[in-house]
Amino acid sequence: MTARSVVYAPAVLLALCITPTGPGPDIDPAWLSFDTPAKTTRFQLIAGLTGLNGALNFNGFRDGGLTLVVPLGWQTEIDFRNHDGMLPHSAEIIAPQTPLPVQPVSPAIPRAFTLRLTEGLVSEATDTMRFTAQPAGEYLIFCGVPGHGAAGMWIRLSVSASAAAPALLATPATSH
Ligand SMILES: [Cu+2]
Fold first, then answer.
1. Is pLDDT above 50 for 130?
2. Nearest by Cα to 83 from 115, 48, 43
3. What digits encode the pLDDT tens for the residues 22-73?
4. pTM for this one?
5. Domain extents for the chain?
6. CA 88, CA 123: separation in Å to the nearest integer?
7. Are 158 and 68 spatial neighbours (Cβ–Cβ below 8 Å)?
8. Which of 45, 50, 81, 166 has the least C-beta neighbours within 10 A?
9. Of 41, 64, 39, 80, residue with least CA distance to 139
10. Is 41-170 CATH 2.60.40.420?
């Protein structure tokens, strides 16, 4: 019944460039909810949840260490909250790219970005992005505040044509 049984082949490919990190942070099942018949999902995206990486993390993960898998075509709601008491943060869905941008770029999926992409949302501010998960492919969930994403403040979104249900997976963090 858990989404973790979903096969996620790209994560295996990413293993080619992993940095061994040992046990990672925990994934809270409450972060992800979904309605399979309705093909809707909701993900709680929490900026600066922990002190990891100077709080430049989402849900305690950095550098792609967490992957949200969403089946192709599902209506997706990402509820953003900035838990960081110090810095503003934002989020947008972007295409994977090297090097990572140091400024916000055009979102790879229409409407998949928070307010105040460059300035960031202040501590405990929230915003919700709603979009249709398409086209299939690999994306980054990236903080648009200048320098944050390039410093590791990004996780992954996989829009999957084969997944039967959404999932949250710990994935190898990439080194730079
Ligand atoms: Cu940030």
1. yes
2. 48
3. 567 899 999 999 999 999 999 999 999 999 999 999 999 999 999 999 999 9
4. 0.86
5. 41-170
6. 6
7. yes
8. 50
9. 64
10. yes
Full DSSP string of 115-163: SSTTT-BPTT-EEEEEEE--SSEEEEEE--STTTTTTT-EEEEEEESS-
Q: How is residue 14 written in tokens? A: 């990413």
Neighbours of ion ligand 1 (CB under 5 A): 89, 143, 145, 148, 153
Instruction: Region of 149 please: left (phi>0), alpha (psi -120 to 50) or beta.
Output: alpha
Best CA proximity match to 43, nearest among 17, 9, 69:
69
How far apart, in whole angstroms, are the C-alpha atoms of residue 116 and residue 74?
Answer: 25
pLDDT greater than 70 at residue 111: yes
Show the tokens assigned to 101: 């941008």
Spacing, Cα 97 to ligand 1 middle (Å)? 18
CA of 164 to the centre of ligand 1 (A): 31
Distance from residue 122's CA to the centre of ligand 1 (Å): 10
Residue-wise pLDDT tens digits, 86-99: 999 999 999 999 99
